[in-house]
Amino acid sequence: MKIVVVEDVPMVRERIVDALQELPGIHVVGEADSVDTALSAIKELNPEVVLLDISLPGSASIKNGIGVLGWVKQRYPGMQVVMLTNHAGNAYREACHRAGALAFLDKSNEFEQLLSLLSKLIKVGERKVQQNAHHKLHSPAHEIRQTVDSLSWLGLLIDLARLIRPRRVNDGRWEQMQN
């Protein structure tokens, strides 16, 4: 799972990245420390999950992490955003959930829940991949393609057999079929 970590405090960002690298299946593909670098990283790297702090140096149009969350959900509705912040008040929590955050975690006392949440997302992603592969292997389109491929090979073999097998001609002699 590709993740971009957006956190303005370098030591905190490093701690998050170090913890994430311990999880199998997690690939931190980018880091950002402001609204502008977050938007660039998300556009360029197209992660599956964004870990996003609320307090970030803003830009002219987007002031903080909640604004980035809204931007992400508007442009990439399938991308998951987990808010990881020290602003754990109910007003922030509700605003983030309304804007489409998958989860809202307090850095100071809910950080371990982040690792559990990401592990669950990896398992859900693996199941979806398996279900999609199963569906594709058993879909009517796949079966039709297999049948066409089989018939193509069968047709080729029949044509080849016709070319090399002897055939009877009217006078009773055997001769090879000419092209």
Describe the overall structure.
- With 179 residues, the protein is α/β, with parallel strands linked by helices.
- The chain has two domains: 2-135, Rossmann fold; 139-176.
- Helix content is 53%, strand content 17%.
- The protein has six helices and seven strands, in the order βαβαβαβαβααββ.
- It has helices spanning 10-20, 35-45, 65-75, 90-99, 111-137, 140-164, and strands spanning 2-6, 27-32, 49-52, 80-85, 103-106, 166-168, 174-176.
- The strands form two sheets. It has a five-stranded parallel sheet with strand order 2-1-3-4-5, sandwiched between helices. A two-stranded antiparallel ribbon has the order 6-7.
Uncertain residue ranges: 147-153
In CATH, the homologous superfamily of the largest domain goes by the name Response regulator
> Overall 3D geometry?
globular
Sheet having the most strands: 5 strands, parallel
CATH fold label of the largest domain: Rossmann fold
Helix and strand pattern: EHEHEHEHEHHEE
**Average of per-residue pLDDT values:** 79
CATH class of the largest domain: Alpha Beta
User: Count the strands?
Assistant: 7
- Number of helical elements: 6
Number of domains: 2
Name given to the CATH architecture of the largest domain: 3-Layer(aba) Sandwich
